[in-house]
Each structure stands twice: as structure tokens, then as C-alpha cells.
TrEMBL record:
Example of a GO cellular component annotation carried by this entry: cytosol
Keywords of the record: Cell cycle, Cell division, Cytoplasm, Septation
Organism: Azospirillum lipoferum (strain 4B)
GO process terms (BP): division septum assembly; FtsZ-dependent cytokinesis; septin ring assembly
UniProt signal peptide: none
Keyword Cell cycle carried by entry: yes
Subunit structure: Homodimer. Interacts with FtsZ.
UniProt KW Cell cycle keyword: yes
Location of this chain's protein in the cell: Cytoplasm
Protein name per UniProt: Cell division protein ZapA
Function: Activator of cell division through the inhibition of FtsZ GTPase activity, therefore promoting FtsZ assembly into bundles of protofilaments necessary for the formation of the division Z ring. It is recruited early at mid-cell but it is not essential for cell division.
Transmembrane segments: none
């Protein structure tokens, strides 16, 4: 097991995680820290436990929405999606052409 030091709301915590998951744990901690700061306006709006609980409840609400299919769709750059689909289609055509020649 690996040990990782993370920071949430200005406090440091030492956490254990599976080897190789350290970066992911730091990424998740940064996400939670950002959500907490946005929810509380960056200041202290109650006890730390209340702020952490509010953040957890908001994240749980969002997760349930996503799991039930009501999730908030992220902003999508349609041009980038179309370009990527074109690139994938061309790659599929190339592979198909090679298979036909074989």
C-alpha cells in the first residue's frame, strides 16, 4: 500500500491507496477541494465537518443524477467531436482496406 499526502480545505491528510493509484487520489482530492471551495465561496461557512458534509451531499446528488440518466451533460465542442469521428472513420476504412488486400 502506498501513502499519499493530500490537501482538502487547507488541511493535510495522509491516506493509503493501492500502489500506482497515488496520482488518481491526488486528482480526486483536488476535485473535492475545488468543489468545496466553490460551494462555500472559498471561505468558512460553518464548521469544517458541515462544509465537508455539504460537499459530499452535493457530489452524491450529482452522482445519483448521472447514474439515473439525468446527469448534466458537459459542454461539448461539437467541431472537435466531428473531427475525431472523421479521424476514426478514416482509420476504420484504412484497416478495412488492408484486410481486403490480405
Amino acid at each position: 500500500m502506498a501513502q499519499v499526502d493530500i490537501e482538502v480545505n487547507g488541511r493535510f491528510y495522509r491516506m493509503l491507496c493501492e500502489d500506482g493509484q497515488e496520482a488518481r487520489l491526488r486528482e480526486l482530492a483536488a476535485y473535492v477541494d475545488d468543489r468545496l471551495r466553490r460551494l462555500t465561496g472559498g471561505g468558512r461557512s460553518g464548521s469544517e465537518a458541515q462544509m465537508m458534509l455539504m460537499t459530499c451531499l452535493v457530489l452524491a446528488d450529482e452522482l445519483q443524477d448521472v447514474m439515473s440518466g439525468k446527469g448534466i451533460a458537459p459542454a461539448v465542442d461539437e467541431g472537435a467531436v466531428v473531427g475525431e469521428l472523421d479521424r476514426v472513420a478514416k482509420r476504420i476504412e484504412e484497416v478495412a482496406a488492408r484486410l481486403e488486400r490480405a
